[in-house]
Amino acid sequence: MIARLALFLCSLTLAAPAAAQLRIDITSGVAAPMPVAVPAFPTGAAVATPAGTTAELGRQVAAIIGNNLSGTGLFKPIDPAAFPAPGMAEVDAPQFAAFRTAAAQALVTGFVTANANGTLTIGCQLYDVFSEERLVAQGFTVTPAGWRRAAHKCSDLVYSRLTGESGYFDSRIVYVAESGPRTKRVKRLAVMDQDGANHRFLTSGQSLVLMPRFSPVNETLSYMSFAQDRPRVWIYNMGTGQQQAVGEFDSMSFAGRFSPDGRTLVFSVTRAGNADIYAYDIASRATRRLTNGNSIDTSPSYSPDGRRIVFESDRGGSQQLYVMNADGSGAQRISFGDGRAGSPVWSPRGDLIAFTRMQGGKFRISVIRPDGSGERLLTDSWQDESPSWAPNGRVILFSRTERNGRSSLRSIDLTGRNDRRIPTPLEASDPAWGPLLK
Amino acid sequence: MTEGRALLVAALLHIALLGALSLGLARSLQMTAEPDVTPVEFVDISDMAQVTSPPKPSMEAAPQEPEPLAAPEAMPDAPPAPEVPAPPAPKPVKAPDDTAAQDAIAEAVAAAQPKRPPVKAPVKDKAGQSAALLDKSKPNAARPRETSDFARTIEDALPKQSRLSAIQAATLEQAIRAQIAPCWNPPIGGADVAEMTAVLRIRLNRDGSVAAPPEYVSQTGATAGNQAYARAFVETAKRAVLRCAPLDLPADLYPHWREFELNFDPRLMT
User: Fold this and answer.
1) Interface predicted TM-score (ipTM)
2) pLDDT of residue B153
3) Cβ–Cβ contact A360 with B under 8 A
4) Nearest to A436 by CA among B229, B232, B70
5) What pLDDT, on a 0 to 100 scale, did the predictor assign at position A194?
6) Do domains A8-163 and A171-436 have the same CATH topology?
């Protein structure tokens, strides 16, 4: 009996440390970019394609992915000289120790192969260098002309797997390209990939164009043009090149923006110094007036569920933000504080509204919750305006005008970090980020 | 003599057989070892009883609006664009199948969070374990008093060095925290993630190296709308532990840091 009790106590002693288990709160970390290795994607045998050899494409795909990830400010691609370039065999079985030595935390690898039918297959794999687990893998088959999109798709895959948010790299930006002297400015619509590649002009520059906006669902834009000396909103199909004027108004219409389902366009129409917001059904071409009164109501933008609209109005004496139901009822002011607030745009993820805060002689990009709480200024320059959200609601694109009058496109992370210039061949303003491509 | 030879032959054959079997086994393991793309192990709901603090009443618990990112839908008549067909991946990868499990966890967090302080059995004896089981199955059931009394008696009977003094505990906690925090790079700025935390169980060898992969214990703040974020969040925590190992901790206290839990909570970061 004593022996059994002794044995029992002995086993308790051994079990004791586990029971008195420590539980420690880790309440802080570091907000440094995550080091990622993106070595050149190998190819079985270098094959010539219209876009270059598969070996060259493997290098460029890796470079595009590295550039995309670096541009988020959340990742830091490691110099490829710090580790051996993997061959085809190592795509499925990477030498993790070598990447750990290079201080990488994640590895993006893959391959480029040319298929018999002239297409390319670009494989994309993401590994956790420490747990040595493959986190995600996908392959993309593209025409040689579309190889950049495979690199963007791979970037989106990696970004979404590591951050838990959806990506935004396989998307495009439309904006107003500006050239010529201030007194005789030429403004043209231009569209490009979000990284500045595949740039092209959509209009000739004969008429002034302003405020281009992407449809969230297809290859359609709305914009304002002074063509035929009638300033009004147009809808332009980039696939067919066709365009149509929106509604028949005897006065100026402007500030068009699509509903989340792409079926409705909201915009403003001016009459005798007063502007009101209208909704236009694109299929039936029926127009409905949403606001009334003597104030200037403009810059409408739908919530992602399509139920509400944020807009700017001077009905309270100064230019401020209001949220109303999509039928025009129940308008509530949401912006307060010093200065004015304009050009609001609702985040695609719904939690915030970005807008231009005008105070103290400066224009700054700011975000606010739809209920008017939690306003946060993101930029501090002289003249930042025209915010537009990346498709994942994480990054804001805007235009910045320097004191010398030069304007450019910039993007900033929702956290207020990573203020970067988006390269454009000419001066640029009024950007709009399009949806993820299908 | 012949008996000895027979024994030798038999032994050699056994070794050969063993070798062949091991090699064959190793090969078959290699062939079937499919890379696991769902590294987060989501445990049963009953383990949620270990969450230290119930989430505060917040918007997370309220009915959520549809996930905004899912809102834009493809229009069937979209013009043909240079399409990237998404063919079957060259290496078919198992789809993440943890959604249901985490949904259940999220619901459990939102709806059925036990409002009582965590029960810490002072000694993990058989009685303590059964008490814990009782607690989990019936959160509101009164804990049998005699069980904890019994456990306390046992604890008092233990040798002194197996318990940690307050100073030792604080020192050890500080040492672990100081080594893990610089390696943790939590995702920040995501939507609807204010209350997100994750608890991992860590097992270390005597030299401070990781004895087993960090084990998922529980998570708060996960909702139906932020599954991918919740998974990425847990992975950053696991990565922090693996990056920092081996930890440099007092050798004489090894019984106390052989196994412990880390609660990753980035509230102080933003």
Assistant:
1) 0.82
2) 52
3) no
4) B70
5) 94
6) no
